[in-house]
Each structure stands twice: as C-alpha cells, then as structure tokens.
C-alpha cells in the first residue's frame, strides 16, 4: 500500500475537536484497504485527545496531519507551544483532566514530540492499523 497523507488547516470554532474528528473520519473512510472499526475508534480518540490538549494547553490553534502507513496510522498535531505534554495526576472529580496524555501513550505503538523550526511542536502517535 502506498502512503496516503491528508493535512487539515486549523479550525477556530468552539467545536475544534469535533472538526478534527470529522476530518479524521473522512480520511479513514477513504483508505483502502479500510481500517477496522476498532482501529478507527482508536484513531478518533487519539485525534480528539491531542487536539483537546492543543486547545487547552498550547494556545488554542492546531493543525492536524494524518498519514496511513501499511502497518499503522500516524496522527500528528502541530501547535504553537514549545511545552511538551506532561503526565498529570488524573482528577477523578472531572475538573482538571489528566487522563489524555497517558491514554495516548498507552494506545500508541510510539509517540514523539518534535520541536518545529518555526516555533511550537508536533506531537505524533503511531497507532495500530
């Protein structure tokens, strides 16, 4: 299978995570061979978590890039903050989160945080296909 790539421009509305999931779903629906429903659910969850982290902790702007490889789907979110994601103690009362980054690292084969030459960073996760 050839590598397939899709980049999406930043969304600026209050539904940015929903917009990212919609774009990811369209990307996944166009793949041949198709991904399993479990793999698609994992990709959508990781997209949602990484975009939500960019919205909450990195200035609210993001760019989503999805790449299909023969054995995985790479999710990359670019944002303007140089600060890497950090594990936090999860808030069991639902006020401050803390579940997203551990969830992403647990679901992914690999994760990477790469500084961008223009500033900010890219947070990426390679997920099972």
UniProtKB/TrEMBL annotation:
Recorded superkingdom: Bacteria
Keyword Transferase: yes
Keywords of this entry: Kinase, Serine/threonine-protein kinase, Transferase
Keyword Transferase tagged: yes
UniProt xrefs under Pfam families: HATPase_c_2
SUPFAM superfamilies: ATPase domain of HSP90 chaperone/DNA topoisomerase II/histidine kinase
Domain Histidine kinase/HSP90-like ATPase: residue ranges: 23-123
Disordered: annotated span: 76-100
Protein name as catalogued: Histidine kinase/HSP90-like ATPase domain-containing protein
Organism: Streptomyces rimosus subsp. rimosus
């Amino acid at each position: 299978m050839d590598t397939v790539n899709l980049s999406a421009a930043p969304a600026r509305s209050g539904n940015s995570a929903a917009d990212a999931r919609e774009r990811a779903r369209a990307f996944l629906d166009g793949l041949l061979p198709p991904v399993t429903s479990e793999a698609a659910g994992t990709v959508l969850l990781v997209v949602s978590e990484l975009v939500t982290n960019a919205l909450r902790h990195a200035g609210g702007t993001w760019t989503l890039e999805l790449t299909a490889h023969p054995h995985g789907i790479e999710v990359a979110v670019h944002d303007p903050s140089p600060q890497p994601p950090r594990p936090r103690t999860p808030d069991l009362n639902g006020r401050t989160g803390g579940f997203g980054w551990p969830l992403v690292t647990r679901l992914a084969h690999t994760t990477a945080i790469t500084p961008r030459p223009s500033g900010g960073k890219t947070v990426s996760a390679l997920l099972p296909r």
